[in-house]
């Protein structure tokens, strides 16, 4: 069985910033350089790891791990609070560099993106040279390193960007794809998580070569519609385009307090502050919103949300205060509160009315 590829392969670059949040902190605060650093939580070790420097990753500390576990693994760890306004500003600078090369940029998050550079003639038409130029420009203009993956589809480009981390470039060509995929552990395939990997192991599937031997019908029977995707990627087939205009489903902001709060006045002030940040993001993205959601997390890490939809889009951040106040009043005060967040959804481009949606004042 042979790998199926496009007659004229696309040229896709995946840019992934190296330990982005932690690297920004180490750039801005020289005393943190070379130190085991966690962005997230607080000095007492409460909260969740948002980002981990490479110095602390050597101890097995990873993002989404509890800060308590991070301190157990590395007693010398330093915790700093996130500065998302700074990260967003740096991300905007990086995005501008990418857009100076091509308009075909799909942002996945603040620290990674796909670029489709098919047909570009700059840098001798070499996607590898373009990727290295991007990395050099990012370093020169932001002081941060990035890793790049270059291939003929999104899946392989994303996998490639992780091969030579940090601060490296890796290329997977159409000629290399079959051999590369054959030896790739299934856990490394984009879209195959731990639970799916365990089910595949039970079927005797350990790597790409094993996955390629399983029929599409059997994979669909076992995994539903995702089975066809697994069959395709085992054959190097990923036709997903780079979407330069990403559709936003929601925009929000949240904060975790240094100390749990009980005072309603203080809590409502924090909620309004997160609301102001979320609405600023809406304006920056030129979006209107018809639904607002309040998120609360208690001291025991349980959380709940309350939402309200309106028939006329929120016109400014203060126009949501009335509903946030009412939503907050509906929140049980069973425990002190450690986190509040505000999210806008039911989004449309600014000045465009939302139609055919049942909303109630």
Helix content: 25-40%
Quote the distance from N terminus to C terminus.
59 Å
Query: Strands of the largest sheet, in order across it?
Result: 5-6-1-7-8
How large is the count of helical segments? 13
Give me the secondary-structure category. alpha+beta
Strand content: 15-25%
* Molecular shape: globular
| Number of spatially distinct domains | 3
Rg computed from alpha carbons, rounded to a whole number of angstroms: 23 Å
Low-confidence sequence ranges = 1-6, 354-361
Order of helices and strands: EHEEHHEHEEHEHEHHHHHEHEEHE
Instruction: Find the CATH topology of the largest domain.
Output: Alpha-Beta Plaits
Give the integer mean of the pLDDT values: 86
Q: Largest sheet, described in full?
A: 5 strands, mixed
- CATH H-level superfamily title of the largest domain: Reverse transcriptase/Diguanylate cyclase domain
CATH class assignment of the largest domain = Alpha Beta
InterPro entries: DNA/RNA_pol_sf (IPR043502), DNA_pol_Y-fam_lit_finger_sf (IPR036775), DNA_pol_Y-fam_little_finger (IPR017961), DNA_polymerase-Y (IPR050116), DNApol_IV (IPR022880), PolY_HhH_motif (IPR024728), Rev_trsase/Diguanyl_cyclase (IPR043128), UmuC (IPR001126)
Domain UmuC: 12-193
Biased composition (Basic and acidic residues): 238-248
Region (Disordered): 238-257
